């Protein structure tokens, strides 16, 4: 908002200027909590805020003339800043003039000279009185004490200043009166009226009776600012009816307290030709107009002079770039900030005038922000869409200010806005389903696998911890088999694993961040236990006590190839570790029997001799593991005549039992598991390669 108050310059300190709380529409008790503070744009502190009453108070006595000089208006600009939410209000205080200064002439006495042959109507310029007050309190008129020879004429200059002149209305006679003494009084328009006086002494001279005359006496020239030095401004048109030295005119600047000599640094005057040229750079923003007084003096005796008044008004050109002022910036801003959230307060100003000083602000359209005009030359930067720190952790915002001049001038200011993170992303595993392998009988504490999760948030919102969930698939809690490092996600064994008991585990792993509220994700890892050769073969048939031998009879006339018996063995391991081979241990003498390596069948290798003694065979069953494990059985084969033995009975094979069926089932499951693991591994490798 923008507030406007007015206060007379003679008001005492502590006086109330305006009711801020009422005009701003806020409660008085909220001013302190919202940290209301006052900022003077000029750097001087003339006001203060009474937070208890919500009133703007005068802090020191104001002097309008000291603050604004001869400016027709005098305004002090303040800024009120309130927080929660952040708001900026502009306060403009007009300082009203009071008639506290009396008119005063630069000199208490003015001495003029006039020739006795001066014609009625001759004008004698007088000193202009000074009155720091403005408006109706400034100089209103002049009065001249009664005289039969002189009257007072008042001209108004281009800037509104009234210039007194004495006009000769009756011819002079020096022999009668050589000196005329009058009193000039300056009156202001205040109430009550104040005045100032100056003594005017007029010496009547003989000789040169025609003064130089400027045509026109008051003129105006328009000139663009920043013209090159040496540019001709004007050439004065002055005539003198006298001849010879009395008509030879010299020009010089006339300087008075009301017409400061600052223009002499910017303009030069040729004393012979009356040409006025620039001798320094002209800046419209420093001064938009200059009042130049020129004295035209002839060389007569006594010399006579005329006065020319020239007003040079500058035409503004677009020579100043806009200026961007970042009043306030709220950084960082939460990524979940709602659209319309105020991010920054931005002010802009341009020293040029008119269209050259009209400024508009721009930012890039692809940014999720927009500019909203608060009031004149002040803008708010607000969010215009959703923010996502994971896509953009910050923005370099470039604000561009362009004026409406021709050609246009622009400036830009860049500032960085950081986006603060909120916990809006759950952690994610790189692979939601994974496989791992561990050798059975590994020592407790063996590293099995590591899971890796990531969280695009930052800080505590991205700090991850891992844990194992109980899925209820095993009879015993999964935590009795495995544990996980909560910091790095590495899973270790808690105890040795037995392939023959558990071949595969499903380990559900949960990862959780440290945000508020915490977010989590889960992944399932299939841990396959790899078999090792830790079980020796077991001989199922023939079943004999340890240290005993199995006795088998065969016909004495058995032919080569005759099936004597068959050794049946199993191995609780799987794969290569369960592949069995059968062989006879070497003896000192050759035996007429041999054993099939894979089937375990024992057959007659050569014809038996009559009345041959029983043969003792040691059959060794060995698996294919590393290292290889084995078992053995002792057979005693006795040839008997007329022995015809049914093979099935001779084998005396036991009927298949549920235990044997289970062993076969275990072998089948082992083969299927190995095949499945191989397929999964090939699939994982192929996926990673792709």
UniProtKB/TrEMBL annotation:
Q: Which InterPro entries match?
A: Cadherin-like_dom, Cadherin-like_sf, Cadherin_CS, Cadherin_N, Protocadherin/Cadherin-CA
Entry keyword set: Calcium, Cell adhesion, Cell membrane, Glycoprotein, Membrane, Repeat, Signal, Transmembrane, Transmembrane helix
**Cadherin domain mapped to chain residues:** 6-105, 106-214, 215-324, 325-429, 430-539, 546-656
The processes (GO biological process) annotated in the record are: homophilic cell adhesion via plasma membrane adhesion molecules
Query: Where in the cell is the protein located?
Result: Cell membrane
Predominant cellular place of this UniProt entry's protein: membrane
SMART domains according to UniProt:
CA
Would you say which domain of life the source belongs to?
Eukaryota
MF terms (GO), sorted A to Z: calcium ion binding
What membrane topology does the UniProt entry give?
Single-pass type I membrane protein
> What do the Gene Ontology cellular component annotations say?
plasma membrane
**For this UniProt entry, which segments traverse the membrane?**
663-687
Record carries keyword Calcium: yes
Q: What does this protein do?
A: Potential calcium-dependent cell-adhesion protein. May be involved in the establishment and maintenance of specific neuronal connections in the brain.
This chain belongs to the protein called PCDGM protein
Species annotation: Chionis minor
State the taxonomy lineage. Eukaryota, Metazoa, Chordata, Craniata, Vertebrata
């Amino acid at each position: 908002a923008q507030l406007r108050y007015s206060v007379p310059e003679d008001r005492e300190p502590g006086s109330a200027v305006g009711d801020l709380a009422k005009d701003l529409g806020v409660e008085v008790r909220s001013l302190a909590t919202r940290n209301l503070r006052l900022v003077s744009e000029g750097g001087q502190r003339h006001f203060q805020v009474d937070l208890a009453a919500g009133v703007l108070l005068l802090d020191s006595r104001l002097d309008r003339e000291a603050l604004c000089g001869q400016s027709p208006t005098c305004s002090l600009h303040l800024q009120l800043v309130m927080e929660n939410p952040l708001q900026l209000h502009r306060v403009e205080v007009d300082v009203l003039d009071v008639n506290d200064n009396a008119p005063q002439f630069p000199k208490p006495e003015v001495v003029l000279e006039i020739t006795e042959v001066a014609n009625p109507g001759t004008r004698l310029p007088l000193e202009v009185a000074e009155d720091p007050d403005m408006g109706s309190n400034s100089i209103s008129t002049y009065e001249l004490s009664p005289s039969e020879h002189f009257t007072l004429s008042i001209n108004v200059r281009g800037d509104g200043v009234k210039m007194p002149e004495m006009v000769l209305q009756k011819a002079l006679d020096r022999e009668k009166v050589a000196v005329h003494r009058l009193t000039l009084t300056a009156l202001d328009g205040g109430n009550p009226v104040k005045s100032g006086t100056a003594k005017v002494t007029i010496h009547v001279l003989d000789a040169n009776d025609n003064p130089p005359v400027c045509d026109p006496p008051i003129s105006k020239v328009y000139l663009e600012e920043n013209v090159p030095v040496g540019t001709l401004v004007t050439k004065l048109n002055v005539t003198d009816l006298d001849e010879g030295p009395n008509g030879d005119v010299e020009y010089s600047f006339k300087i008075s307290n009301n017409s400061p000599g600052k223009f002499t640094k910017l303009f030069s005057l040729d004393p012979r030709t009356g040409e006025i040229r620039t001798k320094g750079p002209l800046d419209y923003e420093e001064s938009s107009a200059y009042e130049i007084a020129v004295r035209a003096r002839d060389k007569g005796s006594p010399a006579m002079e005329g006065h020319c008044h020239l007003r040079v008004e500058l035409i503004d050109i677009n020579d100043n770039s806009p200026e961007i002022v970042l009043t306030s910036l709220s950084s960082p801003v939460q990524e979940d900030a709602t659209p319309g959230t105020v991010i920054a307060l931005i002010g802009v100003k341009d020293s040029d005038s008119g269209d050259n000083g009209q400024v508009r602000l721009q930012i890039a359209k692809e940014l999720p922000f927009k500019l909203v005009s608060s009031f004149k030359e002040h803008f708010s930067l607000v969010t215009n869409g959703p923010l996502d720190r994971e896509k953009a952790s910050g923005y370099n915002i470039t604000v561009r200010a362009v004026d409406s001049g021709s050609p246009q001038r622009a400036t830009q200011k860049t500032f960085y806005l950081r986006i603060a993170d909120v916990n809006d992303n759950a952690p994610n595993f790189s692979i939601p389903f994974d496989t791992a392998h561990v050798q059975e009988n590994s020592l407790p504490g063996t590293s099995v696998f590591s899971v890796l999760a990531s969280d695009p948030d930052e800080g505590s919102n991205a700090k991850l911890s891992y844990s194992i969930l109980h899925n209820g698939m095993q009879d015993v809690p999964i935590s009795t088999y495995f544990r996980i490092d909560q910091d790095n996600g590495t899973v270790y064994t808690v105890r040795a694993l037995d392939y023959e008991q558990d071949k595969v585990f499903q380990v559900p792993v949960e990862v959780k961040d440290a945000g508020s509220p915490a977010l989590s994700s889960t992944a399932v890892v299939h841990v396959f236990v790899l078999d090792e050769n830790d079980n020796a073969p077991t001989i199922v048939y023939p079943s004999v006590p340890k240290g005993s031998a199995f006795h088998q009879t065969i016909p004495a006339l058995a032919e080569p190839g005759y099936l004597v018996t068959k050794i049946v063995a199993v191995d609780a391991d799987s794969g290569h570790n369960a592949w069995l081979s059968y062989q006879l241990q070497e003896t000192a003498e050759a035996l007429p029997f041999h054993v099939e390596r894979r089937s375990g069948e024992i057959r007659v290798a050569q014809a038996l001799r009559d009345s041959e003694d029983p043969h003792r065979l040691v059959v060794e069953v060995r698996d294919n593991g590393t290292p290889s494990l084995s078992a053995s059985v002792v057979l005693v084969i006795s040839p008997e005549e007329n022995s015809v033995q049914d093979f099935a009975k001779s084998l005396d094979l036991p009927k298949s039992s549920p235990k044997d069926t289970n062993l076969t089932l275990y072998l089948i499951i082992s083969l299927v598991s190995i095949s499945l693991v191989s397929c999964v591994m090939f699939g994982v490798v192929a996926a990673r390669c792709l």
